[in-house]
Every structure is written in structure tokens, then in C-alpha cells.
Amino acid sequence: MTPPFDAPADAHPDAHTAAVERFPLQFARTRRFSLGVPRQFTVSPDGERVLFVRSTSGTDAVSRLWLYEDGAERLLADPLGPGFADDAAGEVPPEELARRERARETSSGVVSYATDAAARLVAFPLQGALWVLRTDGGAPRRITTAGPVVDPRPSPDGSVIAYVSGGALRSVRADGTDDRPVAEPDGEHITYGLSDYVSQESIGRSRGYWWSPRSDALLVARVDTAEVRRRYIADPSDPERPPRVVAYPAAGTANAKVSMHLVRLSGERIDVRLPGEAGEGHPEGMWTDRAFEYVVAAGWDDHGPLVSVQTRDQRSVHVLEVDDASGATRTLHRTHDPAWVALRPGTPLRLDSGALVVPARPGGDTQGLDIGGATTPPGLEVREVIGAADGRVYFAAGEEPTEVHVWSYASDDPNRGSVRGHVRGLVRVSSAPGVHTAAVGGPTVVLDSRTPGGHTVTVLRTGAPTGSIAVLAEEPPVTPRPLSLSLGKRELRSRLYLPSWHRPGDAPLPVLLSPYAGHGMQVVLEVRTWWVAVAQWFAEQGFAVLVTDGRGTPGRGEAWEKSVHGDRLTAVLEDQIDALHAASDRHPELDPTRVAMRGWSFSGYLAAAAVLRHPEVFHAAVAGAAPADRRLYDTHWEERFLGHPDVQPENYTRNSLLDEAGALTRPLMLVHGLADDNVAVAHTLRLSAALLAAGRPHTVLPLSGAGHLVGQEQTASNLLLLERDFLRKSLGR
Predict the structure, then answer these.
(1) Cα angle 611-617-619, degrees, rounded to a multiple of 5
(2) Which of 382, 439, 470, 581 could form a disulfide with 397 if both were Cys (CB 3.0 to 4.6 A apart)?
(3) pLDDT for the residue numbered 137
(4) What is the CA radius of gyration of the chain?
(5) What is the Cα–Cα distance from 222 to 263, expressed in whole angstroms?
(6) CB-based contact 335:358 (threshold 8 Å)
(7) In angstroms, rounded to a whole number, what is the distance separating the alpha carbons of residues 610 and 392?
(8) 144-180 confidence digits (pLDDT tens)
């Protein structure tokens, strides 16, 4: 392989060249190096057992269920093994396929499971069938059910298993007897026990029912999508196949109606009396909607059911205590914000004492926690609450935006006190620079760590390492070589990737910006992960790759994250340009006369906007799955930033790319999966039509059968090569 652009002819040794050339296929075959990675950890309350899901290698796409106990791993359920392979395979229910799409699940086999309170009985679906096993011995058993199974969950005492089938919530005893309906649909567009689209995709609530601690009742979500507009996702390559229908609430249109109900196994049903709208304290705005349209979290602990609701305009969240005898609710906590109330994963959490763990503003610009009345210190940016175990609350937080660590706080220490209203006695569980999360139970912490050195899972007991769970993912054939940068007046956290073969004095390289830069995700982190490997691979192709997290991304305080309120593009593009100029001034390896941007989803939208709005800076772009028309995206996500399109149409106009199509003067390649139900292909088709109407040449690459995450091996592999070739042609001289 000849080094691209102006690289010296002898730059690539044969071995390195071969490694670089096989990267795209390995990237696709390993599903972004995700296969073989253990996940979905469950730690038993005594800390003795750890359940998890993992395949057997970095190229094995079939997930199995495993148990870690007494320092060793044991395979519990192998879908390709005896018993399973002999069983007649059914079809995965459409509700389960939708759940996997929302979770970006790329494997098959055992991809989800649930346990009883003691983590002794495990239930999981496989091709629509219900399987159970015991962690203390015995082979997996198939339980006959009334229909295909979605989201089976054992009762806390392990006697009964609830599951969803055909939109009904049902229960069956763990011995396979007494299968009966718990709550059945009372209309064509009604389901019980499932989560609606925006709750799964944009809110982060994937569940639709919760067991009582006494195993005699369930808190159940009823979802009515009758008023939600339908989308029809077809496969043009198979015109005889009927389209898939998705109830998709686009910005400004009707949401699903979600109500909550208490259903006892005895047959009694009580409606939860959720409040209709927020009252005093709710911030006003140009568009104000006080109606509580979103159920953002729910659960049932020893103190009773707990439900959190959010207003349509997202400026108020109430945490409600539910009386399980009457369905009446009482507000335990209120949060308001003039822009939007950020939802922190894992909250609210109620401790054994009854105290709440909820988001808080501890001072300054920090997004922290209130733990039973005391707050985490300013400067410690909390990302999620992991859980409580053995008298401690565990959460993930960082003092530096590029790192996330696991912290704990002794919530049951009567002498813990506080320092000026803030908690003391905080302990950082993780140590190495990186991004860490965990699962907890009793005195055991399963520390899941991604660092610049790779990915490890360590089992800690009473704070000391006692073992590890193997990570079987393949290693990328390219070695990441990022330079850590802090650029410009806003100290933009950035990473610069240069080719391993580039030497001081060589000709400057064309620059490729490869950010995400959108709300809810960072890519400039102290980790070695798939996007780091992709950045280095593009660098080896002859680019200087610059990755920057700017305003709107997490980890740098509330004002930073909410600076995109009302305008999702201007500040974000400004930060990318500022980072480019600062990096070019500092590094002569960069050629600012040849600059491109590539991206997917929000960053695809950003890439298209870059060449439309700033052709003086950006000379080419690859825009994948770009949400070009913000009116087409879902209510909860889009209205968070831009308000209601009927009330604030100027926000949607300012953030749409369609009216700017006539400004295109640079090469632009649009890529989109035709089966994408998150960012509909209509976004790209409308942008392409606007470009064509304006007489602006561009390239469109449709991906047949691909969703928002491109999973087909050859498609994902060749897409990288096609992007590379397009960028080389567009920037080469």
C-alpha cells in the first residue's frame, strides 16, 4: 500500500500496512470491538455471586449467561449448547427487536436477563421463549407460556415470573404452572408492562413494570399510542415485505399517554393518581407546558412505590411517593430549571432509612447529588447513581471532564455529618485515569474500567481486589497515539491523532475533524475504545485527526451543557473551528487549507452544517444519519433544546439544514441506513432534495437494511473505506 497524500514512499512497513488494511473488516466483524465484553452485571445482596452476559470471543456474536463465584467463572446458559440447540427456535418478538434497537444491542443469544432478590433464580428470553435456571445448580428449563415473551422478571421471592406478551402483562409460576394475565390491553393501541418510544430512546427508562418487595403485586405502566403519529419503515430492496409500523412522536406532536397502575396477583387493580400538571415554582418561558406527560423513572422498594414525572416542557420533575393501598401520591421532591431538568441515571434512589438520593446543585456550576440532605462537593460532576449496598451509596463522577470515577459515600454512618452542607467521608473507589462504572452488592464492587491501557473488570470485596472477570474483546490492529490538548480560550478538551509514519519536517497533513460534539456523549476521554481506534486508523490513512468536545457535551457543568438551549449549532460549530485554529497554530503538521469533518447522527448533522455554513473553513464532509430537519426528531429530545415548533418555529428554522442547501459549495457525502427508525431516512432524503433543487452536486449513499447502528459486516467495513476514499479525493491536491 502506498502511503496517501504526501507521505514518504517507505513510510509503511509491511506488517504495519497489513494491520491497517485489515482494520475495517475487524472493526465490523467485532461489532466495534464490543463482542467478548462482559456487561449487565448483577451482584447478589450478599456479594457472593456475580451474573453477567458475554460471548466467548471477540468475534462471537452469540451472548451467553455467566456466573462469577468463588474467584471463578462458570457458564450458566449457552444458546448453542445442549438443550437449547435441540429446542425449536421461534422468532424474536417485534417488541424485543425494538428494545434491542433502542439499546443498540448488536449480539444475539442471551442479551438480557433478570433475577429474584437473592440472585438465585434467573429468567431470560430466547427467541421468544421463556427460560429459567438456578445459580446454585441445575440445567436451564424452558417454561411454556401463552405467547412470545418480552422482558421476563422473577418476583423477589422467586416464586412467580412476570412477562409481556402481545401487549399484555402476564405471570407464570416458576414451576411452569398457572400462566395467567395480570393486565390485558383494553384497546387496539394499548400495552401493559412495556416502555414507550421516547422513554426508551430519549429518557432512558427501558422498563415498564416493577415487582413489589412482597412479590404480591406490580407497579405497571399502561401505554396508549392511539394519538401518536405512525411511521412506516420499509425495505426498498425487498418490495414485497410489508413496512414496519412505529408509533413515533415527532416534535410538536402528541406523545403516548402513560399511566401507572398497581396490580395485585389476586386480581385487584388500583390506578395511581398522578398529578396532572406542575404548580407553584414551575419556571415560565416563551413556551410553557406544565402537563406531566413523561414518566421518567419508577420503582418499588420497602417504603412503597416511587414514580418520577416530568412536564412536557421539561422544566419540572416531581418525585412521588405512592400509597399502594389507595393509589394516592405525595410529592417528596421537586426540581425546576429554566432550560430543562437534566435526568440523572439511577435517580431517584431511596435508601433503607427512607432518605432520597436526587440530583442537586451543590454550588457553582456543578451538577451533583443530594444524599439524604447533604450534597456532594462543588467541582465533582456526577454522571450517574450506581446504587446502594452495605450501607454505602455508589455513584460515578469526575473532577476533570476527561475522566469518570466510581465514588462511594457511607450513607448509614450516624457520625458522617457534613461540612458546610456537603457530605464528607467520600471515597474514590477507582484509581487509574479513565472512565469507570460499577455494579454493587453487599461488600462486593464489580469495577468496570476503561482506561488508555484497555478494558478490565475487577472484583473488589471490602475494597480489596479479589479477582477479575475476563474481557475477551479483540485488540485493534492499530495502536492509538493521541496527543491530549486543551485548546483556545475555553480550554476545549481535544485529542490529536497523527500517523505513526509521519515525521517532523514532513509535508503538513489534511485535517479531519471527527467529533460527536452533541448532548449526552463525550469522545474526548482517557480511554482506549472503538472511536479512538477509528480515529487512529484514519490518521494512518494520511490525515491529522482532531477530536474535540465543545459546548453542549457533558462533564463541564450545567451552563456548559445547557449553552445549546435554543440553538444546537452556532456555539458547537464555533468550538470546532476554534479548536482547529488553535491546534493548527500549535502543530505545523496540520494543513488548515485542507479540512474535512465526518460524523454520524448528531455529528453527521454537524458535519453537513460545517460545509454549508463555513465553506471558508471546511472543504469536505461525510454526514451519516444526519437529523437535518429537527422537526422530524422526537418530542422529548428535540423540545428539550428548541421548545415547541408551533410556538418557537424560529428555533427549528435556525437549526434546520434544508433552507441552507443552496449554500453548498464543497463536496458532501450523505449516508443513511434505510431501516433507521431513530433518525428517519427522510432527513437525508429531504436534504438531498433541497440540494438537488438548488442545483448543488452531492453524493448520497443509502445503506439497505441498516438501522441507526450499521450492523452488517460488509456494509460497516466498506463504509469506512468509502469514507476514506471520498475524503482523499475531496482534499487531495
Answers:
(1) 55
(2) 382
(3) 87
(4) 26
(5) 11
(6) yes
(7) 47
(8) 999 999 999 999 999 999 999 999 999 999 999 999 9
C-alpha cell at 624: 451519516
Q: What is the mean pLDDT of residues 385-405?
A: 97
Q: What is the pLDDT of residues 618-628, one digit of tens each?
A: 999 999 999 99
Q: Are 383 and 367 in contact (CB under 8 A)?
A: no
Measure the CA–CA gap between 705 and 246, rounded to whole angstroms.
Answer: 16
- Which pLDDT value is given to residue 386? 98
DSSP at 208: B
The type of residue at 420 is R
- The angle at the Cα of 659, spanning 655 to 664, to the nearest 5 degrees, equals 100
Cell of 629: 430537519
At 412, the amino acid letter reads: D
Closest to 388 measured CA to CA, from 364, 354, 360, 432:
354
What pTM was computed for the model?
0.95
Q: Is the pLDDT of residue 256 over 70?
A: yes
Residue 267 burial (CB count, 10 A): 9
Please tell me the distance from the alpha carbon of residue 448 to that of residue 481, in angstroms, as a whole number: 23
- What would the DSSP string read from start to end of 157-202? TSSEEEEEETTEEEEEETTS---EEEE--SSTTEEEB---HHIIII
The CATH code belonging to domain 14-29+474-731 is 3.40.50.1820
Query: What contacts 526, CB < 8 A, 6 or more positions away?
Result: 402, 403, 433, 434, 435, 451, 452
Q: Are strands 209-211 and 160-165 parallel, antiparallel or unpaired?
A: unpaired
Q: Is residue 4 pLDDT above 90, yes or no?
A: no
pLDDT at res. 639: 98
What would the grid cell of residue 286 be?
416563551
Cell of 82: 445442549
- pLDDT digits 0-9 by tens, 425-467: 899 999 999 999 999 999 999 999 999 999 999 999 999 999 9
Amino acid at 261: H
Strand partners, 427: 408
Q: Write down the pLDDT at residue 92.
A: 86
CA–CA separation, 337 and 311 (whole Å): 11
Using a 10 angstrom Cβ sphere, with 0-12 exposed, 13-18 middle and 19 or more buried, the burial of residue 382 is: buried
Is residue 718 helix, strand or coil? Answer: helix
The percentage of the chain sitting over the pLDDT mark of 90, rounded to a whole number, equals 88
Dist. CA 443–CA 49, nearest whole Å: 11
Task: Please choose, from the candidates 722, 682, 680, the residue with its C-alpha nearest in 3D space to the C-alpha of residue 701.
Answer: 722
CA distances from 665 to 252, 343, 453, 600, 697 (A): 33, 40, 42, 21, 9
Of the pLDDT bands very low, low, confident and very high (cuts 50, 70, 90), residue 420 is very low
| C-alpha 609: how far from chain center | 24
Each domain of the chain, given as residue ranges in start order, spans 14-29+474-731, 185-305, 344-472
